[in-house]
Structure prediction request, 608 residues.
Amino acid sequence: MTAGRGPYAQYRAILSDFVQSVKQQADIVKVIEGYIRLRKAGAQNYTGLCPFHKEKSPSFSVHAVRQFYHCFGCGVSGDVFSFVGKIENVGFPEAVRTVAQKCGIPLPKREFSSPEEAAEARLRGRLLELHETAAAWFSEQLQGPEGALAREYLSGRGLTPQGIKTFGIGYAPDSFSALRDRLGATADPETLRASGLFSAKEQGDGSLGPIYDRFRKRVMFPIANEGGRVIAFTARTLESGDKAGPKYINSPETPLYSKGQVLFNLDKAKAAIRQAGYALLVEGQMDCISLFLRGIKHVIATSGTAFTEQQVAILKRHTSNVVVNFDPDAAGAKAAEKSIALLTEEGFNIKVVTLEDGLDPDRFIRERGVEAYTVAVMGARRQSDYLIERARQMFSGGSAEQKVKAVNYLLPHIRRIPDKLVRDQFAADASQKLGINSAVLREELRQAALRRRDHIEVRSTSLTEVEKVMLKALAITDPAHEAARRKAVAAIMDQPELFESLGAVRALQNLAGRGARDPMEVVEDSAQRALLAETLLAEIEAPSETDVEGAIVSLQQRQFEGHLRDMRAQIAEAERRGDFTELTALTQRKLDLDRALRKLHSRVPHGA
Ligand SMILES: [Zn+2]
Prediction:
C-alpha cells in the first residue's frame, strides 16, 4: 500500500497525536530504569552500563529534560520509543504501545502504520492468548483423572499444590488431538501451526500434513517472558523405556519465543535479584523452581544449555553479580565453565558454589534444608579460586608438565577478564596456589594479565567552545530562547563557509534545517550525533543571542586570520619576484583586513 493512502492514513494521523501525547507523558528515565540501573550524574543526567554493547564502565547517558539517551561507546541514541523498540526488539508501533502501557496511558483503538505490522501484532496477540488457554488447560488436565501419574511425579519431587500453582505447572495427556480439539475452534490452522504447540508431518509432495499435539504424556512447565506472560513450554516425559524419547523437550522457536533470549524465572526473580544485589544462576528449571518455592527468590535458570550472549545481556540489565550453582557432574562443570567465560567477558563478578556430596541444588535443599543451602551459597568461591582449584584437580601430581597444562588451562580465563587489577590478582593467585617457580610460566601468567584485547570505545573528539555554543543554540526547543536559535540558523544558511572547518559541521547543517523536529532525530551520522549528545548532556545553559553572536564573530575572526596568513605569504612571494604593482595592491588589502579584524576583536564578547 502506498504511504498516505487507504484506511491506514487516518490511523496514522491518530497515531501521530497519540505518539506525541505518550512522549510528553512518559519519563524516559523511569522507563529506562525498568531495564537497566541508572545513576544520577548531574542535575539532569543519568548514566549506566549500555545494554546495547559490551562495556565495563558506563558510557550510556540519559537526559531527563531533553528526554533522550545516547551511548558514547557504541553511538546508539534516540528517544523513549527507540530505546524500548531496541531493547524489546519490537517495531515502532509496539514500542509506543509498550511505553503507553508502562505509563498507564490508555491506547487508541487502532494504531498500526501498515497492514503487515497490524497482522504481526495480531498474530503475536493471538499466540499469547493460545498459550494462556493452553496453560490453563494443561493445569486442568493435571488435576483431572489423567493427571494422576504427573501429580505423583511432582509430589515425588517435593512440589506442593501451592508450588504447582505458583509456576502454573500442568499436564499434557497422552493424546495426539486433545489440545487440538480444545484450541481448534478458537484459532485458524495457520495460527495453531505458528504457536509451536503442534507438529505436522511432511507429506510426499513437501507440504505439511494435518497438525497434531506436540506434547503428549508430559509434565508441562510454562516459560514466561519478562512480563510474566506464557510464551512457551518445557515438557518432561513421564514415559520410560524405548517409547520415552527425550526427557525434556521445549517449544520450538516461534514469533513469541526464542530460546537463547529467555532466562527462566526472570519475571518472578527480578525484583529479588535487585534487592539481593546478585542473581543465583542454576542449570535446571526444577532446581530453579525448588529453590524459589523455598524462599530463595533471586534464582534463575539457563534451561539446561550454556548461556547465550543475549541472556547475559538481559541479566546485565538487572545485576552485575552472579553466583553460579551448576550440577556437580562433568557436564555441569563444562556448562559452568562456558557460562563463566561469557559472564567474565561482560565484566560480571562471579562466584561459584560447589555443593557437598555431588548433590544438585534441588536435592541439596530438599535433603539438607534452606539454611544449609544458604550457608553453601555464602561460602561460594571467587571464580579465580574455583578455576585454579579445577586446574589443580585436572592436572594434579605437581610435575613440571602438569603445571604447564594447568597454566595453559587458566590463561584464556585470565585474558578474558576486562579489569586489569582483577587479572593481575588472578595471575598472582594462580602462581602461588599452583606452586609455580618457573620463571617462564610466571612470565606467561604476567603477560596474560598484561595483554587483553581491549574494547575500543568510539569516543567523540572534543568540541571547541564555538561548536558547543552553536550546537546548543541550534538544538533549542524552548520558545523562550528561540531568537538565539534563529540567529544560529541564519548564520549557517548565509555564511556556510564560516563553519566548513568545524568538526561538527554536518551536525550543525542538519540541525539548521530541522524545523520543529527533535534535534537528536535529525543528525544521522553516529559520530556527529555523539558530538551533539555530548553537548546536550553537558550542563551548560542555553546560549543567548549574544553568545551566538560571539561565536559567529570568533569564527569570522578565524576566517580573517586565515586570509591574513595567505596575504602575508603572497606579499613575501611578490617581494621575492620584485613585483611592486602586485605588492602595493596586496599591502593595501592586508591593511583593510587588519582593520576589519581589529573591528571584529572589539566585538568579541568575553568568553566566546
Ligand atoms: Zn552502547
Remarks:
- The chain has 26 helices and 16 strands.
- The domain at 465-603 is CATH 1.20.1260 (Ferritin).
